[in-house]
Design goal:
Spore Coat Polysaccharide Biosynthesis Protein SpsA, Chain A, 9-stranded mixed beta sheet
């Protein structure tokens, strides 16, 4: 059973194991009449070839309260997009759409925005999510919007119910809900970037640059890198998200910029959570956990700088040294936590991660100092609409035309197969 302790400056909604999924879903069905709910699934085509996404779709088939499911599909050619239509066709929800981000219609929209420096500059999840957000605004179907990754191997539909509940409940005033959980898989403690980079870095920054409401805020989240969150549709208009690996932290900081703490919460969505694991990539800073750690560190440095924090090469070195000591103390803490719970724990592997993260904090700091005008944030949709007033209409038309074209092809092939 979870505890009910409230720590930090945002509300924590616990799972006290006192309510059945059926009861929760009955209430969500009633909420959906007042506040319709949508789900975003950002996905690489390669996820369709793995068992995790097939199980997620199976679970979603039994979800009774969703008005819309939007899949952002990356790295797919024409045949793969057709296969995606077949793959998701069993979803029973009335409005299921796939954003074929590599298709000619959406590429044309991307080129149009890119010509005005209004499009995401990097490929990846941030770009995918941004276009999905635009389509959500264009469709206007969902008032409460949830998002989760497509590589969750332990997925149960209760995760979605608990994630959406704080935003869908009309008696709550939350604008944003962040999911959290214990990252345990294969009888090991997972979530190295959160455990050994983000939390120690926040504590180190508190020591080096002093008290900051932004650091207090970040330190309130039990799993700041969770890819599962929900928000009200009005949030989507103004939010500026990073296009790199700093998406989750960057979005948290955007919510802090736009809303009071009492409009933000975190919610326990799973007892067990595991997903596809990234490689450490110690020798390649352009992929895996190495790139992730650099992008996240840069995102934190940028936000603190915009709120008055001063960074110099000497301060970056102090942050790195302080981080290293704090992180090594956390290795001991997590080792003990793993032992009492009968989990495997490789101290050598954990300390290798800490050493790499320490070096990458330096890399991120130097990059930030050398590129003070670097702006990885994608413009808000409000700005895009101001520059291109018809863009949402064009985006919705492009997605719907793709859907109609390939749905007709799927229907024709089904008829031919029966004949």
């Amino acid at each position: 059973m979870g505890d009910f302790y409230q720590n930090g400056i945002v509300t924590t909604l616990h799972n006290l194991r006192s309510r059945s999924l059926e009861d929760l879903e009955r209430e969500l069905i009633s909420f959906s009449k007042v506040r319709p709910m949508s789900l975003v699934l950002p996905s690489l085509y390669s996820e369709l070839e793995r068992p995790a996404l097939a199980n997620i779709v199976d679970e979603l088939c039994d979800v009774p309260y969703l008005s819309e499911i939007v899949i952002g599909l990356d790295q797919a050619d024409r045949d793969q997009y057709q296969h995606a239509h077949e793959f998701f066709s069993r979803l029973p929800q009335s409005n299921v759409r796939i954003l074929w981000n590599d298709g000619p219609r959406l590429q044309e929209i991307h080129k149009k925005l890119d010509a005005q420096n209004l499009a995401p500059t990097e490929l990846g999840k941030g770009r995918n999510v941004w276009y999905c957000m635009g389509y959500m605004l264009a469709s206007g179907r969902g008032e409460a919007i949830g998002l989760h990754d497509c590589d969750i191997v332990t997925y149960k539909r209760e995760m979605l119910a608990r994630l959406l509940y704080p935003i869908a409940n009309p008696n709550f005033n939350y604008e944003y809900a962040k999911g959290f959980y214990a990252r345990i898989g294969d009888q090991k403690m997972r979530g190295r970037v959160t455990r050994l980079l983000v939390t120690p870095l926040i504590r180190a920054l508190m020591k080096v640059i002093g008290h900051s409401e932004w650091l207090d805020y970040l330190d309130s989240f039990r799993y700041p890198l969770a890819g599962e969150f929900a928000m009200r549709r009005d949030v989507v208009n103004d939010v500026r998200i990073p296009s790199d690996w700093g998406l989750e932290v960057g979005l948290l900081l955007e919510m802090k910029r736009n809303f009071a703490n009492n409009r933000i919460c975190q919610v326990d969505i799973a007892d067990v959570y595991d997903h596809k694991h990234q490689e450490l990539s110690e020798t390649d800073t352009d992929k895996g956990l190495s790139k992730m750690s650099i992008d996240i560190s840069k995102s934190i440095f940028r936000k603190l700088a915009t709120n008055g924090a001063v960074f110099t090469p000497e301060i970056i070195r102090s942050i790195k040294a302080t981080y290293f000591r704090v992180a090594l103390d956390f290795v001991e803490t997590y080792r003990n936590d793993a032992l009492i719970n009968g989990l495997g724990y490789d101290v050598h592997e954990e300390e290798r991660s800490v050493e790499m993260f320490a070096q990458n904090i330096m890399t991120a700091g130097h990059h930030f100092l050398e590129n003070p005008m670097d702006t990885p944030f994608v413009p808000s949709w409000n700005r895009v609409i101001s520059a291109e007033p018809e863009i949402l209409t064009e985006l919705r038309a492009a997605v719907d035309e793709d859907h109609l074209e390939f749905s007709n092809g799927l229907s024709a092939s089904s008829v031919a197969a029966k004949a």
